[in-house]
Task: inverse folding
């Protein structure tokens, strides 16, 4: 199956990410339906033409009609939804998701899903510290990474369809990782960074610190505004990988602390040089450096 | 003394910050002279009209003519310059600086400076991960903090002149802190953040990590590109305050690690809520939230 303008696409969960998916698909000329328990979110999307149909009910006929279903829910709600409602899916439907941790989830859902449907996991690495469809914006995907997370159970066709979603939504880079590699990587680049930002934000209680804050501090704590329901669930779902990454970070941080204590200027400079060299690899667009030096 | 269009202003050190000062003053209609050991930097600034005169020599007459001298040098070079060359200063000259750590420096310079000159310390909290006058830009000061760092030795007049520099350069907020309070604050909002960014950048050696990086990671490591000569000096000059801040951070980070280990979801959520609430205070312009929700 390839997605075309006649493909019946259903999004379940119309929050920030589900809403941004809906906007992206609609802008690209696809017709999107949506289910969300919050009628307000559905009304918001209908009024603005973000979706062409939607409901806050468990509309059996809407589910049965869908060729592709995209779940943009909290992990445990996604799991429960499949457990309870998978029998309404059309035979041959492909389902995918946007969940941030894959380990337990992907293999579990694949193990309980009907044989005549296929679940291919995906992770759009984009977001925003604000929640809800009112903050949705298809542009959060431009320049971002989209990761297809297949297992040995997935067909080439489903992987191809999943990549196609990333293309339609204009992600900058589409790649593929196993659930295990995905979770290890996420433990580092996303979860560890949130742990750091939170700790930095809560470790000092000085009043009026905001009067003296430079951009460094703002950059490092932007993600300290964090949705506790979602992220506590994601952290615990990826506990082992995250704890491992926290340990690596702590060891490195302690090394720096020790060098400072000992006045080891050369050691500190060496670490700074390595940090600078490695950071350069992560620049989004080296070529467009405006100063051109 | 108040700065006016006839005030003879000399900048010593024409790098990123010195160059940005020169640009800001020139744009505001002041005539700026500069000394830098690098003739290339002087030529660059002269060709672009960033300064009206400049030299890479220790030009005695240029120093003698200056009413206000702004030092934008590495701390130890600033110290050496004053030790060696203060005798060339005009009687009554006010000198100021841009140095990032104040503790040892300010009181030392004040103790050795001639009685007929006054040194008032300042810290423009702005920068850029790139160095040199080619990257200078007066706009790095817009929206930024400018801190006057007086001691009991400073006159009201010098403080006023120092504030005026912040105003001419269009800093968003001008405040005053003692050298000790300044260094404690800087240990937290600037140095600790750089320590974290460096440690994060160097703790994981996975190849091709840049393919999977989201904006969180980029934000947290922007400042991991760090000038080792400058920053190793600043870290060591503020060793005690920085080590204290590193300890507070480590304690908070370990607390989170422990909650994760124990699966303490409520504890993690509580920390996330505190983090979110505190981070809101640091938003630059709450009023212009474009979504208006």
Result:
């Amino acid at each position: 199956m390839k997605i075309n303008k006649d493909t019946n696409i259903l999004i379940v969960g119309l929050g920030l990410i589900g809403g941004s998916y809906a906007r992206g698909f609609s802008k690209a000329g696809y017709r999107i339906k949506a289910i969300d328990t919050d009628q307000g979110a559905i009304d918001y999307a209908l009024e603005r033409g973000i979706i062409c149909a939607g409901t806050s009910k468990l509309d059996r006929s809407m589910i049965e009609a869908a060729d592709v279903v995209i779940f943009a829910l909290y992990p445990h709600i996604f799991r429960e939804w499949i457990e309870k409602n998978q029998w309404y899916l059309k035979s041959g439907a492909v389902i995918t998701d946007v969940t941030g941790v894959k380990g337990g989830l992907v293999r579990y859902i694949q193990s309980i899903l009907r044989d005549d449907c296929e679940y291919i996991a995906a992770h759009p690495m984009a977001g925003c510290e604000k929640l809800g469809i009112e903050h949705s914006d298809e542009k959060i995907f431009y320049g971002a990474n989209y990761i297809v997370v297949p297992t040995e159970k997935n067909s080439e066709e489903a992987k191809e369809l999943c990549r196609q979603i990333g293309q339609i939504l204009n992600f900058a880079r589409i790649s593929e990782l196993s659930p295990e590699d995905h979770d290890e990587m996420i433990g580092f680049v996303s979860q560890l960074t949130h742990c750091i930002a939170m700790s930095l934000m809560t470790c000092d209680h000085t009043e009026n610190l905001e009067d003296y804050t430079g951009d460094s501090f703002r950059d490092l704590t932007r993600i300290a505004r964090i949705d506790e329901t979602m992220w506590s669930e994601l952290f615990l779902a990826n506990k082992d990988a995250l704890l491992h990454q926290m340990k690596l970070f702590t060891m490195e941080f302690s090394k720096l602390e020790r060098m400072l204590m000992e006045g080891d200027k050369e050691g500190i400079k060496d670490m700074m040089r390595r940090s600078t060299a490695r950071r350069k690899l992560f620049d989004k667009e080296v070529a467009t450096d405006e100063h051109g030096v």
Remarks:
- Residues 285-293 of chain A have pLDDT under 50 and may be disordered.
- The CA atoms of residues 26 and 219 of chain A lie 32 Å apart.
- Chain A has two domains: 9-177, 182-288.
- Chain A touches chain B through 93 residues (CB under 8 Å).
